[in-house]
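Board notes, transcribed. Complex of a protein with NAI.
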Amino acid sequence: MADQKHDLVVIGAGPGGYIAAIRAAQLGLDVACIEKEKALGGTCLRVGCIPSKAMLEASELYYEAKNSFASFGVKVPAVQLDLPRMLKRKDGIVKSLTQGVKHLFKKNKVTHYAGHGTISGKNTVVVENAGSRTELEAKNIIIATGSNVASLRGVEMDNDRIGGSTEALVYPEVPEHMVVIGAGYIGLELGSVWSRLGARVTVLEYLERILPGMDTEIAEEAQKIFTRQGLEFRLGSRVTGARVDGKKVTVEIEGVEPVKCDRVLVSVGRVPNTERLGLDSVGIELEKGGKIPVNEHFETVTPGIFAIGDVIRGPMLAHKAEEEGVACVEQLVNGYGHVNYGAIPGVVYTNPEVASVGKTEDELKEANVRYRKGTFPFAANGRARALGHTEGRVKILAHEETDRILGVHIIGPRAGDLIAEAVCAIEFGASSEDIARTSHAHPTLAEVMKEAALAVDGRTLNM
Ligand code: NAI
């Protein structure tokens, strides 16, 4: 006999799982959420999105104080880095947000079980915690166990000198030379942090470009800007091994001399976390890449067992997991719920930020879709000039005949916030003309979006 019974048991309290749990509770279900880590909030809140943004913000302020304040007419005595304070601030932000999830659970009457959850049958989940064992009976189960850092063959991660993003958020000192393997989201964000704080950063990327999947033109511009900031890119570099020798690391690269450095960040992607989940016990087999196959209702081959977020197909993004959590629960309770995968933004929080939604120009060309393109640079925007951040541009791609917006790609100040307008436009099936005829407050960065929309029709006003 089960120790406890619930309508829904969610395994994992990351952005996918905790949001699904709260939404289900709002809809009247008796919900439980199991989490194996001490703090709630998943990779995103504990060791991912949030702490990295705290470090990006802090390192940016340090960099600006050192390098640009004087140009604003602000004189400061020699700027000094207080890394322990910076790390402590980050930890404080993480603590307050993870505790916030705990409060949200309480407020919404979601029962939290601390421990590792394993599915033991179609309607049962066992929670193990330091030797104790609780069996839960559930009408429905949602797997929201997220992902782990992908390892690289030959690279022996000691989770100190050679580590992933978790380790790169807590280096106790600024490395003299840091090697980043992989020029994706994590590599560029955390490489930027330590470069701003004074490290020499070398980024080794297997492909002949950075940010695969992002619009090529925008990625090329990003590479130029980051190179000017001091990041050294070595494209076409296949890392074949890395080993620690005392305080130094030797990184081996195919066909060229090895590189010696102090710390290595392995950021070559993430893999779904399905460890000890008990999937065999309910007949769930993983697809290629280790993901859990689900249908359009997020249901696995086993009725009543669902999966969302990083463990299923699609981009590994917190906000994608959240949308899936809500849609999955709404489908379960109300019979309908939907995620528009064509309108999921992606943001790289470098400086400038890179943000994107919808189709890239490369994808449109490949699919033989006829489109018009409008671009506008931040350098021609008054607010960007006042901010002292004039690099980058907005690029809008609209269908040649219907003018419907197909994709928007931004590199520039606050691109991650500006992309929201584009996401909304795509969600509502807007045309570039719609954005061009919408009043945008002056002077704001958002005006670049309007000008790029005007540019689709060849009628920019400020250039
Ligand atoms: P990624 O998939 O973004 O980039 C990995 C990079 O590593 C690729 O450019 C790939 O070509 C390269 N690579 C693969 N094998 C290599 C090798 N042997 N040698 C050199 N380069 C190699 O993965 P990343 O940055 O680790 O991020 C993981 C996931 O986390 C992504 O799916 C991303 O969406 C998500 N994430 C999102 C963030 C955001 O929304 N701002 C921030 C951090 C992570």
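Residues 122 and 282 are 6 Å apart (CA to CA). The mean pLDDT is 98.
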